[in-house]
Amino acid sequence: MRKVIKTITLFSLPLLVACGGGSKEPVNEAPTTVNLVYPTQNLLCIENGIPFDWSDATDPNRDNISYKIEIAKNRELTNIAKTQTVSTSQVTITLEKGVAYYWRITAIDSKGKQGEPSSVFAFYTKGEGESNIAPFTAELVKPADESAVDGLTVTLEWKGADSNTGDTLTYDVYFGEDATPTILKEEGISTTNVEVSVESGKTYYWKVNTIDNAGAKSIGQVWSFTGN
To answer: Is the pLDDT of residue 5 over 80?
Structure first.
């Protein structure tokens, strides 16, 4: 009986090895995130034919890469003015004059896998005879939009910028539980942060309007967070 069992075992092993073989297709990984080169952050462009430039992405699977450029009239990139896919890391695009634009780049491999979008840069195309230009909309620093935060006190922080580099900026801060905040928390402040009191379980909304010393104003987008 022992000899029979051994024989069966020996003949079974090659079958098991054969069934367990085979190679798997490599996992398709996304390309790397690019760095924006030109136009630089908060640049005032004298011409409206803009030579966009960014760093090359790399792909872990060595796939060919294309780039999607998105140019919008708001920082959250929902009001798209121009979108285009190109095979190189440079493209010249003509835009309207006298408009603040915001742009980013996303690398895409030949199988359609998208990388993480780049950061968003702002620039302004100067119009004919303009002497003063409205500031850019405020850029969120913290807390992250739609995030959950701890504590009963939260610091709201943002960045402000103006292509007229000599301008002095002030800010009106709106904060409350309404999705379209109308309660003025601070008015005409020169700092870029404000502390607010919050309650656990409640969602709060806030926005920052940016005003330059000539009175030109940019209306900020609405951000939100929830207290833990």
So the answer is: no
Same-fold call for 36-125 versus 139-227:
yes
Strands ordered across the beta sheet of 153-159? 139-142, 153-159, 193-197
Chosen CATH of 139-227 out of 3.20.20.70, 3.40.50.720, 3.40.50.2300, 2.60.40.10: 2.60.40.10
Count of CB atoms situated within 10 Å of the CB of 18: 9
Q: Does domain 36-125 have CATH number 2.60.40.10?
A: yes
- Across the range 196-217, mean pLDDT stands at 96
Residue range 87-140, pLDDT digits in tens: 999 999 999 999 999 999 999 999 999 999 999 999 999 998 877 889 999 999
Residue 148 to residue 112: CA distance in whole angstroms = 32
Measuring CA to CA, which residue among 115, 123, 79 is closest to residue 97?
123
Closest CA to 111 of 68, 63, 67: 63
How high is the mean pLDDT of the chain?
90
Domain ranges for the chain, please list them: 36-125, 139-227
